[in-house]
Amino acid sequence: MSEDPESVSAPTPQASGITPDRLLHTGGSDRPSAEDLVLASGRDVTPETLEWARRKLADEGRSALDRQLP
After folding, report:
1. Closest Cα partner for 51 from 40, 35, 64, 30?
2. Cα gap 31→9, rounded to integer Å
3. CB distance 37 to 57 below 8 Å
4. Do 53 and 35 meet the contact criterion of CB atoms below 8 Å apart?
5. Taking the mean position of all CA atoms in its chain, how far away is CA 53?
6. Cβ partners under 8 Å of residue 46, min gap 6
7. In angstroms, how far apart are the furthest CA atoms of the chain?
8. What is the phi-psi region of residue 69: left when phi exceeds 0, alpha when psi lies from -120 to 50, beta otherwise?
9. End-to-end CA distance of the chain
10. Exposed, middle or buried: residue 50 (CB in 10 Å: 0-12, 13-18, 19+)?
11. HSE value, Cβ hemisphere, 13 Å, CA-based, for 41
């Protein structure tokens, strides 16, 4: 395993409809939005759920989203 977090698998011939490894990511470095948290929790996006998500993200940061995902 490489210690370089940006390393990718060796290139392979491109098959139609397959996403290349260099474009795949987990989102670990992304900043989740309130909408991301609402959707991950299975709720509808409403003003109330967005406010709930904003509070959760302010209190817990990214871990608020991580707790919603399997």
Report:
1. 35
2. 25
3. yes
4. yes
5. 15
6. none
7. 47
8. beta
9. 24
10. middle
11. 21
User: Which of these, 57, 17, 58, 45, lies nearest to 68 by C-alpha position?
Assistant: 57
Sequential DSSP letters for 1-65: --S-TT--PPP-PPPTT---GGG----TTS---HHHHHHHTT----HHHHHHHHHHHHHHTTHHH
Is 0.70 surpassed by the pTM of this model? no
Q: pLDDT by residue (tens digit) across 24-67?
A: 655 555 788 999 899 989 999 999 999 999 999 999 998 998 88
How many other C-beta atoms are found inside a 10 Å radius of the C-beta of residue 41? 16
